[in-house]
Write a structure and sequence with these properties.
Elements: E1 19-26, E2 36-43, E3 48-52, H1 59-66, E4 74-79, E5 82-83, E6 91-94, H2 106-110, H3 112-117, H4 123-133, H5 149-161, E7 167-171, H6 179-196, E8 199-204, H7 207-213, E9 216-221, E10 226-232, H8 243-259
Parallel strand pairs: 3-8, 3-9, 6-7, 7-8
Antiparallel strand pairs: 1-2, 1-4, 4-5, 9-10
Amino acid sequence: MENTAKRANPFPTQCGARIQVTGLSHRYRHTPTNALEDVSFTIEPGECVALIGRSGCGKSTLLHIIAGLTRPSAGDVRIDGVPVTGPSPRWVMMFQQPSLFPWLSVAGNVSLGFRFSGRTRETSARVEELLKLVELSDFSDRNVQDLSGGQQQRVALARSLALSPDALLLDEPFSSLDAFTRSSLQRDIRSIARKLGVTLIMVTHDINEAAIMADRAFVMASAPGHILNEIVIRRPGDPSGSEGFEKARRALIEAYEGAAGLAFAEDAADWSI
């Protein structure tokens, strides 16, 4: 007799992680000034926040500290109240390069987290669902070297989501992709994060990307790195074609120019749109 019991949802809705950064400062060895100084903010569960600013303002340093890959010189990071002292499967970073194992298939790369965590019994069903989620179901047995750059980043995304993290940290993972592929991944990653309830923090130089994907954007200035402006992005419906997107984009441009010392001053802070 056919089993009519409803199959358990392999991706239960999560509430995402609450991330608190308090008094964070960091100085690299043998450098005279801080890379970051007195950075504090809170990110609510399920929120998407963009870190945006010119090269050298400390965006990636801040993201690496949140991920537990770098220990700060002062201050702390807490995820759901727990101090971050190192990497964890609860918060996962995606880098500019997908860093896949070239000798493995698509499914083999996605299943690595289950193998390393000893959860091999759930591998087959979960990998199938993950590949469906990132629209790669037909590529399961393909070698990752045969995929396009965008497809490889989708594999990296599926691998990052395998162990159901509460937070996903994006360090410019779209920067080397063509405009069409980049736009598709921006839309899909934001949609997947909402569906799963994952908190997102993304580093980007792309103002359009921040306006499309983020609920808030922290605009950073350098020497030392600090948050100069906070842009709250409110939009109805599809951000790429809405008035809210255009308002967010204009405010981000002005705040970015202010942080870079190009056109606007510090009193441009605390935009809300």
